[in-house]
Each structure stands twice: as structure tokens, then as C-alpha cells.
Amino acid sequence: MTASLAIGDFSRATHLSVKTLRHYHRVGLLVPAEVDPGSGYRRYQADQIPTAQIIRRFRDLGMPLEDVGGVLGAPDVTARNERIAAHLARLEDDLAQTKAAVASLRDLLEAPAVAAITHRRDDPIAAAVVTEVVDLADLGPWFQGAVGELRATVDAQGVTAAGPPGCVVADAFFTDESGELTVFVPAAAPVRPVGRVAFRTLPAVELATIVHAGSHADIDRSYGSLASYVSTHALAVDGPIRERYLVDRHDTADESAWRTEIGWPVFHTGP
Predict the structure, then answer these.
(1) Which of these three, 73, 88, 109, is where a domain ends?
(2) What is the CATH number of the domain that holds 126?
(3) Residues 128/153, Cβ–Cβ less than 8 Å
(4) What tens digit of pLDDT does each residue of 33-61 get?
(5) In the 3-class helix/strand/coil scheme, how is 6-67 assigned residue by residue?
(6) Res 26: pLDDT
(7) What phi and psi values does residue 160 have, to the nearest 5 degrees?
(8) Mean pLDDT throughout 60-75?
(9) Which of 43, 53, 226, 228 could lock 210 by a disulfide, CB 3.0 to 4.6 Å apart?
(10) Straight-line distance from the first to the last Cα atom of the chain, in angstroms, rounded to the nearest whole number
(11) What is the DSSP letter of 157?
(12) Half-sphere exposure of 96 toward its Cβ, with a 13 Å CA cutoff?
């Protein structure tokens, strides 16, 4: 029969505190071999030590207790490995985000040169559009779906795109994390409405613009530079931000090659 260990000895053997072992018992992750009905004392079998060591290593990797339980209770090796692989993929994603954040912070500390800011007037733009009120949490899937639908509709009707796609962003989207977005593709000819796609003319506007290079993970830096410039050199006016996607994910998967123009509405008062 396998040797029995008191909870204190099992704690020393596994480097899991008594408090932690009691918690694992409560949630059903590591159940003692015996529990004295009178005193409540817990005893473990020596052959439970490897299981405790596995749990400890998964927890060191940040795996949630529920997922650890899923790994331990997997019906076969394939299911177990799939759960482990899914967690490792999440760790890799987290690591990539951390590296990107660190690189962005280093750039901020080193105070790199600010991208050039220019002024221009956009004439009215005839465009195929999709307009909806969107929550910030839903932005990614909604935006990619809208752009894909616009491109497909324009192509299917044999209409030539008259410029890169863009988006008109209402102030509420920034201030309230929910607001109206109008994604558009300039069109050389009228586009018949289909599904969410409509055809309309965006009004003329004067803009101060900056081109953000790379991923949108740190696009707030370009927004900050543009806002500082506008507050100092131009008269900002009420009106939505305009973004134009000069090079985006539809052109290349290389995020470093992406180029996004941000336009801040202004009333130009000087050279």
C-alpha cells in the first residue's frame, strides 16, 4: 500500500502551502486520500505527489485552476495535449503583446521624431459606406467585416475604387467607448445599395493630418502628436475624425508596413 502523508508532510514534499492544499481540496482539484471525519485532518498518498507537482508547474505558467482541472481530467492524451497547447498559445500571444508594449514604451522614453503633420482640404467624397453605432469591444470583427463587405460589393458591381478605404469616427466612440462609425470606400461611379452597404457623399472638410506607421497598437501616440499640433497651430472645429487606410491588412500581413492617415478637422488660419 502506498505510504500516507499528513498534510504538513505533503506540503513540504510538494512545496505547496497547507492553505493552498486546502483550497485545492475545496475546489476539487487535488482531493486528499483520507479526511478524518472528526478532526477534518487531511492525509495524502505518496503517489499523489507527481500530480501536485504537475499542478504547481501549470500554476507557475499562469494556467487558471479550471483549466488545470480540465488537463488532469482529460479523457485521453490527445485531449490533454490540446488543452495544454491552447494555454501555451495564449502565453505566446501575451508575450507578443508584452514585447510590443515594451518596444512602444522604449520609443516614448527615447522621444523619437514626430511624423510630419500637413494641412489639406478634402472635397466631397462619393463613397460606398457602412454606418453603425459600434462598441469599442466589438471594433475589430465589426470593422473587418464592414471593409470586406464594402470591397466585395464595389468589386461585384464593377465599380472602381477611387481611393483607399477610410472611416469617419464620431467623438462618442472615443469619449463613451460607443459611437457611430462610417466605414467607406471612395467610388468612381454610383454603387447600388446591398445589405448594409449604402451610397452617399461625405461632406468636404479641412483637415490637419498625420500618417501613423505600423500596427494600431500604439496609434494613440500619433493621435496625441496630432492633437498637440492642432491645439498649438490650428483652430480645431467640431466634427468627426477621419482615418484613411493607405496600407492595411488587406494589402499586407506585415504590420510594420501598415500606414494609417489620421485627419483632425480644423479651420485653417495660417500658412
Answers:
(1) 73
(2) 3.20.80.10
(3) yes
(4) 999 888 889 999 988 998 999 898 888 88
(5) EHHHHHHHHCCCHHHHHHHHHCCCCCCCEECCCCCCEEEEHHHHHHHHHHHHHHHCCCCHHH
(6) 93
(7) -85, 130
(8) 88
(9) 226
(10) 90
(11) T
(12) 8
Q: Ramachandran region of residue 105, left (φ > 0), alpha (ψ -120 to 50) or beta?
A: alpha
How far apart are the C-alpha atoms of 264 and 229, rounded to whole Å?
10
pLDDT tens across 178-234, in order?
A: 999 999 999 999 999 999 999 999 999 999 999 999 888 888 888 888 888 887 776
Whether residue 126 is found in the same domain as residue 236? yes
Q: Fill in the DSSP letter of residue 76.
A: S
CA distances from 203 to 121, 160, 200, 210, 268 (A): 11, 20, 10, 20, 17
Which pLDDT value is given to residue 112? 57
Q: CB of 35 within 8 A of CB of 42?
A: yes
Instruction: Tell me if 69 is assigned to some domain.
Output: yes
What dihedral do alpha carbons 31, 36, 37, 40 form, nearest 10°? Answer: -70
Where would I find the beta strands (DSSP E) of 195-258?
A: 198-202, 205-213, 235-236, 241-247
Cell digits for 207? Answer: 483637415
188: cell is 468612381
Q: Which three cell numbers stand for residue 115?
A: 511624423
Strand partners, 185: 128
* Spatial separation of the C-alpha atoms in residues 238 and 194, rounded to whole Å: 31
- Amino acid at site 2: T
Phi and psi for 200 in degrees, rounded to 5? Answer: -155, 170
Is this structure's pTM higher than 0.85? no
What average pLDDT does the segment 138-161 reach? 94
**C-alpha dihedral sign at 120, 267, 245, 200:** negative
Domain interval for residue 140: 117-267
Kindly state the cell numbers that stand for 254.
506585415
Which DSSP helix (H) or strand (E) runs through 127? strand 125-135
